[in-house]
Amino acid sequence: MGNGRTAVVTGAGSGLGREISRALLGAGYRVALAGRRADALAETADGAANALPVPTDVADPDSVAALFETVRSAWGRLDLLVNNAGVSVGGTVDELSFADWKRAVDTNLTGMFLCAQQAVRLMKAQDPRGGRIVNNGSISAHAPRPASVAYTATKHAVTGLTKSISLDGRAWNVACGQIDIGNAATEMTLRMADGIPQADGSVKAEPTFDARHVADAVLYMAGLPLDANVQFLTVTATAMPYIGRG
Q1: What's the CA gap between 219 and 179, in Å, rounded?
Q2: Which Pfam family, just one, is annotated for this protein (predicted)?
Q3: pLDDT digits (tens, 9 = 90+) for 95-140
Q4: pTM of the entire predicted model
């Protein structure tokens, strides 16, 4: 039986987006699955009746507007946006190409802004008013890896976006929080098992943790009443080189 609540998850075709989407679907949410690849979204949906795959480019304002109009037309309201879509772009500040910098900014930051903008507009206009936004940040905003200038800068900016949405949405019963994740086991972190560059110049394998725990954390954040909010939540592999000297 459904819970009557609706959600949008971006980057739903793989990795954390797929885990979060399936957890929400399992909890009875009606979930619009947003991502660039229709086949990947269909795989995430896996035939679930409460899934609505919507191919979307989060960096394109028209595509994002169409996503939220589809949600409004289908369900009449939006209770939750999980702003998850992102790309990891490696490169030092002196070597990173402008094209790669722009790709990171367009997806990781502008994409989140565009989705949040449309979500807040819908949440303000619906009855009952309000909803929740969960932004996927990163511990890279606090402790960057070598050669991660674009990823780190965009994720640092997401923290500012989260705080601003929280403030701007307060009068409209729109809550916004952020989850910062370190080394969840996804396609993006497979390379960590072979070793990843450290700040001291060494290359070491790093531990990961089951991505389902991220989905559980998002479910907790999403399940709170709108008069309570998890502003920032950090989930990492216990033994990863984050706290301390690494």
Answers
A1: 12
A2: adh_short
A3: 999 999 999 999 999 999 999 999 999 999 999 999 999 999 999 9
A4: 0.95
